[in-house]
Amino acid sequence: MKHTSKILMATAAIGLIAGTSAAFSKDLKYAHFQSADLSSPKHAAALAFESCVEGKTSGSIDVQIFPASQLGGGSEIMEGLQLGTVQMAAVHDGPISAVYKPFSVLAIPYIFDDQAMAWSVMDGEFGDAMAEDMLAKTGIRMFGVADNGVRNFTNNVRPVAEPKDMEGLKMRVMTAPVWVTLVESLGASATPVPWPELPGALQQGVVDGQENGVTNIVNASLYQHQKYVSLDGHVFSWHAYLMSEDFFQGLSDAEKTAVTQCVEIAKTIHRGMTAAQDANATAILSEKGMEVVPVSPDQKAKFRAAAQPKVREFVVSEIGAEWPDRLDAAVEAYRNQ
């Protein structure tokens, strides 16, 4: 009888210890919008983050990944980050710009020459200043950015090689006014559509086309409803790695260090996968049955002349000249180094 009592007491003690350990584990809900497979840069990066953080913290942070918009669209996730109901997310440009307007400066088209320039600017003083400002104004911490792909126009009506070919097309854009301005400056009409609803909008003919990078075109099977893709590369689009500041401040110093280091690993994986797909755009999209329309430097100059001044004017009217001027200065500094 005494032996049985000792076993019961020992079992209870083990359960108490396990329960105490679980109680001190911090749940980190991590949302993103791509599918849950390793060919998706967002998901591959999220899995790497999960493994890295849980290993470095010995499980004191329990990372729970919610892919494919399971926790809602961009607007809901940004609200969740501010309220603390979502602890972390990789969010694209449009929803960020709707909450933190200065981010829309990155929608000024034909600014960056290539990934090397874009990464250097966003990893440098410009990106650091934006992260600090975002934190102060929204309560959301931005650790850094990874590629959402170099954005190109697709449609199901005709090849687009220069701005005049855009006239009359109904184009889906992200849910922020700056993207409406970009498309309308080229003569098309713009319809904001949340990312989860885009495939349906294309399939049903609500819009003729859209603009996205290769990763998203493939990941969401947009090629099934789009015949033409024009490689104009109008915007270097971003996924920002965001965290609720309240959650971050509730971490120990060691946990903060682990999260920061692991974001760097995730970001590097994310960038590499997306940039590789952009570099192989012609081969990848041709294989999917799309007609790839090359855009020559002279044609791209026409796109730039039509779109850049109008978008910059709109951005300045919304947020002032400080951030556009900072971006111009950062690009110029890169070119002169």
Automatic annotation (TrEMBL):
Organism: Microbaculum marinisediminis
One CC-aspect GO term: outer membrane-bounded periplasmic space
Subcellular location: Cell envelope
InterPro entries reported in the protein's UniProt record: DctP_fam (IPR018389), TRAP_DctP (IPR004682), TRAP_DctP_sf (IPR038404)
Signal peptide: 1-25
Alphabetical list of PANTHER family matching this protein: PTHR33376, SIALIC ACID-BINDING PERIPLASMIC PROTEIN SIAP
Designated name of the protein: DctP family TRAP transporter solute-binding subunit
Keyword annotations of the record: Signal, Transport
Stretches of the chain forming a coiled coil according to its record: none
GO biological process, any: transmembrane transport
Family: Belongs to the bacterial solute-binding protein 7 family.
Pfam families: DctP
